[in-house]
Design a protein that fits this description.
Layout lengths: L13 H4 L4 E10 L7 E6 L2 E2 L1 E6 L2 E6 L6 E4 L8 E10 L11 E7 L2 E7 L9 E2 L3 E6 L4 E11 L2 E10 L8 E7 L5 E8 L3 E6 L18 E8 L7 E7 L4 E3 L4 E3 L2 E2 L13
Antiparallel strand pairs: 1-7, 2-6, 2-11, 3-10, 4-5, 4-7, 8-9, 12-13, 13-16, 14-15, 14-17, 17-18, 19-20, 20-21
Family: Belongs to the glycosyl hydrolase 2 family.
InterPro entries: Beta-gal/glucu_dom_sf (IPR036156), Galactose-bd-like_sf (IPR008979), GH (IPR017853), Glyco_hydro_2_N (IPR006104), Ig-like_fold (IPR013783), Ig-like_GH2 (IPR006102)
Pfam family, one: Glyco_hydro_2_N
Length: 273
C-alpha cells in the first residue's frame, strides 16, 4: 500500500473501499550509527482516524483526530547502525465522541452481517496514512516550542515570543532571534534567555492582510531562532514564517489591523476564491 494515500481508492476492491475498522502498515528502515548521539523523532503529518505506532515492537505513540500531525521521540527504541521496523495500526471508525462524529451499524447482507459507517457530513470517510511520514533528528538539547503572538502600534509591528527548550534545568540557554523581510533582509534582532517572555519591534512594518483587504495580502516575515548553550553556539536552529497583525472586536465588529472584516460564512471544502 503506498504512503501517503487513502487506501480506499487504491484498488478496485469494494470491500477495501468500504472497510470499517482497523488496518495495519509495516515497513523496515535503517538508522545510521552517526545518529546515536542525537534525539530521533518520527512525525506523521496525517493518519485518519486513530493511529497506534510501534517501533521494533515497542509502543511509541497513540493519536486520534486524523487530520492533525503528531510525532514522538523514539531514540530509546531504535537499533543504531541496524535495520529497524515501524508498525502502524490505523482505525477509521467514527463514533459519537470522535471529530467528526459518526456511528457504526450492523447491516444484514447476503453474506452475513456487515459493519457500515454512517455520518452526517457530505464527504467520504477516507482513511489511511494520508500524508508524509518523516524520520528526523535534533540535538539532545533543542528548541521544543516557539510561541508567537503579534500586535501593531501605528507603523511599528510587535512580535511577542517565548522560546521553549526541552532542557528547562539549564539556566544558561540563550536564544538569538533574527527577523528578515520577504526579500531576506535582516531588519531586527534580539537576544533572550529561553523560557522567558520577550518581544521584538519591527519598524515600518508591513502588516499581514487577508485576501481582498489589501493589494499585497498575506505578507510574511521570517523568524529565525538560534539556540546556544554557555559552551556550544547554535546547537539548534528553528525557522518559521510570521504574519504581523492585530485582532480586536467590539459589540458590532471583528477587526483585523483596526479594520472591520465581514464574515461571509464558511466553506466546507478547500475551494479557491
Amino acid at each position: 500500500m503506498p504512503v501517503p494515500a487513502s487506501y480506499n481508492d487504491i484498488t478496485t476492491n469494494s470491500s477495501l473501499r468500504d472497510h470499517v475498522g482497523t488496518v495495519w502498515y509495516d515497513r523496515r528502515f535503517f538508522v545510521p550509527q552517526s545518529w546515536a548521539d542525537k534525539s530521533v523523532w518520527i512525525r506523521f503529518s496525517s493518519v485518519h482516524y486513530e493511529a497506534i505506532v510501534w517501533i521494533n515492537g515497542n509502543r511509541a505513540v497513540r493519536h486520534e483526530i486524523g487530520h492533525l500531525p503528531f510525532e514522538a521521540e523514539i531514540t530509546g527504541l531504535l537499533n543504531f547502525g541496524q535495520e529497524n521496523r515501524v508498525t502502524v495500526l490505523v482505525d477509521n471508525v467514527l463514533i459519537q465522541t470522535t471529530i467528526p462524529q459518526g456511528n457504526v451499524l450492523e447491516v444484514p447482507t447476503d453474506f452475513g452481517m456487515n459493519l457500515v459507517q454512517t455520518y452526517t457530513f457530505d464527504f467520504f470517510n477516507y482513511a489511511g496514512i494520508h500524508r508524509s511520514v518523516h524520520l528526523y533528528t535534533t540535538s539532545k538539547i533543542h528548541i521544543e516550542d516557539v510561541i508567537v503572538s503579534t500586535d501593531l502600534d501605528q507603523d511599528t509591528g510587535i512580535i511577542n515570543y517565548k522560546i521553549v527548550a526541552n532542557d528547562t534545568d539549564d539556566d544558561n540557554l540563550i536564544a538569538f532571534i533574527q527577523i528578515s523581510d520577504a526579500d531576506d533582509n535582516v531588519i531586527a534582532t534580539n537576544t533572550t534567555r529561553c523560557n522567558e517572555q520577550a518581544s521584538i519591534e519591527i519598524p515600518d512594518v508591513k502588516p499581514w492582510w487577508p485576501y481582498l483587504m489589501h493589494p499585497q495580502p498575506g505578507y510574511l516575515y521570517k523568524m529565525e531562532v538560534f539556540l546556544s548553550t554557555s559552551t556550544v553556539k547554535n546547537i539548534d536552529i528553528y525557522r518559521l514564517k510570521v504574519g504581523i497583525r492585530s485582532l480586536s472586536w467590539n459589540a458590532t465588529s471583528f477587526l483585523i489591523n483596526g479594520k472591520p472584516i465581514y464574515f461571509r460564512g464558511f466553506g466546507r471544502h478547500e475551494d479557491s476564491d
